[in-house]
Amino acid sequence: MELTVLGKYGPYGKAGTGAASGYLVKNQDDYLVMDMGNGTLSRLMGVANIKKIKHIFISHLHFDHTSDLLPFRYLLEELDHTVNIYTHKEDTPWYKVLFEHPNFNVINIDENSEMKIGSMTLSFLKMHHTVTDYSVIIKGEKTLCYTGDTMYNGNIPKCFSLSDYVLADCSKPKGFNGPHMNVENAIELSKKYSAKIIATHLSADFDPTDILKPYKNITVAEELKTYIL
Ligand SMILES: [Zn+2]
């Protein structure tokens, strides 16, 4: 199983480089894209044959996780290719703008959903952000959880205990108290659980690498790096 980081920043990339949230998972010959924030589409095109991309998970509807879905439609039209999008239902104008398109087949998920996509099985846990956010737990050759955007909440222990790897929104500075986890959450979780943490959703102006370096279960996501899980 492989995880490629297309973009690790939120809500926008570092000046001159960097993209917002987007990840590509490969298990056997099956692919799952997770979120498509600003700057991720060109990177996805650089690492994958788009015709092989059939499944996209969207954790929540903030712009930095969804905005490249819009230009992606032009490419899908050109290729005459349709993708399944797994996301929760929202009765908002933005939901309609984003997803109402003939090349998108939207499949609404909640905590009771279990989706089989080729060699992977997806299940979902509700997180806690400023808007509804779901984490996805992907069972393939290994088990990977992606938290989307979230502060610490009662479902985080489940994500960690069920998974070999957690791609986690836990890169904010010490003392940060808002809708994301911080480096202290990351350190605490790494001591409590055996799951390996890939810390992501970095602010453009704060790099947690030095603080997290002493903890062998934590690595800070690197863009365009492919992790062999
Ligand atoms: Zn975000």
Low-pLDDT sequence parts: none
The biggest beta sheet is recorded as:
7 strands, mixed
| Number of DSSP strand runs | 14
What is the number of domains? 1
Task: Give an account of the 3D structure.
With 229 residues, this protein is α/β, with parallel strands linked by helices. The chain has one domain: Metallo-beta-lactamase, Chain A. It has seven helices and 14 strands. The chain has a seven-stranded mixed β-sheet. The protein has a seven-stranded mixed β-sheet with strand order 7-8-9-10-11-12-13, with helices on one face. Helix 4 (93-99) links the parallel strand 5 and strand 6 (104-108). The longest helix has 11 residues, at 69-79. The model has no long low-confidence stretch (mean pLDDT 97). The structure holds zinc ion (ZN). The site of zinc ion (ZN) has 8 residues, from helix 2.
Could you write a compact summary of the structure shown?
The protein is α/β, with parallel strands linked by helices and 229 residues long.
Task: Supply database-style keywords.
7 helices, 229 residues, 7-stranded mixed sheet, globular, alpha/beta, binds zinc ion, Metallo-beta-lactamase, Chain A
Q: What is the secondary structure topology, with strand pairs?
A:
Elements: E1 2-7, E2 22-27, E3 30-36, H1 40-47, E4 55-57, H2 63-66, H3 69-79, E5 83-87, H4 93-99, E6 104-108, E7 114-117, E8 120-126, E9 134-139, E10 143-146, H5 156-162, E11 165-169, H6 183-192, E12 196-200, H7 209-212, E13 218-220, E14 226-228
Parallel strand pairs: 3-4, 4-5, 5-6, 10-11, 11-12, 12-13
Antiparallel strand pairs: 1-2, 1-14, 2-3, 7-8, 8-9, 9-10
The protein binds zinc ion (ZN).
Zinc ion binds next to α2.
